[in-house]
Amino acid sequence: MSFDRNIKIAPSILAADFANFGAECQAIEAQGADWVHVDVMDGHFVPNISFGPATCAAIRPHIKTVMDVHLMISPVDPYIEAFAQAGADFITAHIEATPHTHRTLQAIRGSGAKAGVALNPGTPADAIEHLLDLTDLVCVMTVNPGFGGQKFIDMTSKIRRLRDMIGDRPIHIEIDGGVDPKTAPLVAQAGADVLVAGSAAFRGGSVSNPAPYGENIRQIRAAAEGVWV
Ligand code: DX5
Ligand code: ZN
């Protein structure tokens, strides 16, 4: 997988039909998704439960692009191998969920996956200063994790600070929460390249009527790239 800073839209299947994940992944990719974002929640680190590694393994054959697994679980370390075995390309852990984040990122890379670290809205950019050499992706949460469809929290100053800290290193900046055509330009201008979108990507469409997915993705991408449609 080669590195670039082009805008990538990563729809979150948290907003898809849970009874139809395979077909939903195929539909969203056919409609222009660059990555597929997979939100794993444990009812402990966050107040909601979604699904685990068995579901990730089941949907993997239906994803041709990048499977981007966002772990909102604590502890993290005992489950890394299971998500790597399930076929995750990126495994992202929250810095707030794992006391030895340095070890966790090493373990993720050791499993063969790319290592991501996520920051809740209240966590400063500087918290990951000493982790950058072990990091392939920084996920800046623009909502408090746990649910889709929440209101965007402005984190542009944090994104700018991270962009400066990262410099030339091949580290993605991903934004997660409340991304839509209005908020996408703010985060893209600040330096983000991966935009997760749940409700704004899946709104109005379905497996039997997937065209709205494509229109939603096009609008978010065009807004992020500076062209309003
Ligand atoms: C929040 C999740 C997000 C969320 C995004 O805990 O990590 O990925 O599903 O959904 P929207 O785009 O609806 O805010
Ligand atoms: Zn997420």
From TrEMBL:
<feature type="binding site">
    <location>
        <position position="12"/>
    </location>
    <ligand>
        <name>substrate</name>
    </ligand>
</feature>
<feature type="binding site">
    <location>
        <position position="37"/>
    </location>
    <ligand>
        <name>a divalent metal cation</name>
    </ligand>
</feature>
<feature type="active site" description="Proton acceptor">
    <location>
        <position position="39"/>
    </location>
</feature>
<feature type="active site" description="Proton donor">
    <location>
        <position position="176"/>
    </location>
</feature>
<dbReference type="GO" id="GO:0004750">
    <property type="term" value="F:D-ribulose-phosphate 3-epimerase activity"/>
</dbReference>
<comment type="similarity">
    <text>Belongs to the ribulose-phosphate 3-epimerase family.</text>
</comment>
<comment type="pathway">
    <text>Carbohydrate degradation.</text>
</comment>
<comment type="function">
    <text>Catalyzes the reversible epimerization of D-ribulose 5-phosphate to D-xylulose 5-phosphate.</text>
</comment>
<feature type="binding site">
    <location>
        <position position="176"/>
    </location>
    <ligand>
        <name>a divalent metal cation</name>
    </ligand>
</feature>
<dbReference type="InterPro" id="IPR011060">
    <property type="entry name" value="RibuloseP-bd_barrel"/>
</dbReference>
<dbReference type="Pfam" id="PF00834">
    <property type="entry name" value="Ribul_P_3_epim"/>
</dbReference>
<dbReference type="InterPro" id="IPR000056">
    <property type="entry name" value="Ribul_P_3_epim-like"/>
</dbReference>
<protein>
    <recommendedName>
        <fullName>Ribulose-phosphate 3-epimerase</fullName>
        <ecNumber>5.1.3.1</ecNumber>
    </recommendedName>
</protein>
<feature type="binding site">
    <location>
        <position position="39"/>
    </location>
    <ligand>
        <name>a divalent metal cation</name>
    </ligand>
</feature>
<feature type="binding site">
    <location>
        <begin position="176"/>
        <end position="178"/>
    </location>
    <ligand>
        <name>substrate</name>
    </ligand>
</feature>
<keyword id="KW-0119">Carbohydrate metabolism</keyword>
<dbReference type="InterPro" id="IPR026019">
    <property type="entry name" value="Ribul_P_3_epim"/>
</dbReference>
<keyword id="KW-0413">Isomerase</keyword>
<dbReference type="InterPro" id="IPR013785">
    <property type="entry name" value="Aldolase_TIM"/>
</dbReference>
<keyword id="KW-0479">Metal-binding</keyword>
<feature type="binding site">
    <location>
        <begin position="198"/>
        <end position="199"/>
    </location>
    <ligand>
        <name>substrate</name>
    </ligand>
</feature>
<feature type="binding site">
    <location>
        <position position="70"/>
    </location>
    <ligand>
        <name>a divalent metal cation</name>
    </ligand>
</feature>
<feature type="binding site">
    <location>
        <begin position="146"/>
        <end position="149"/>
    </location>
    <ligand>
        <name>substrate</name>
    </ligand>
</feature>
<feature type="binding site">
    <location>
        <position position="70"/>
    </location>
    <ligand>
        <name>substrate</name>
    </ligand>
</feature>
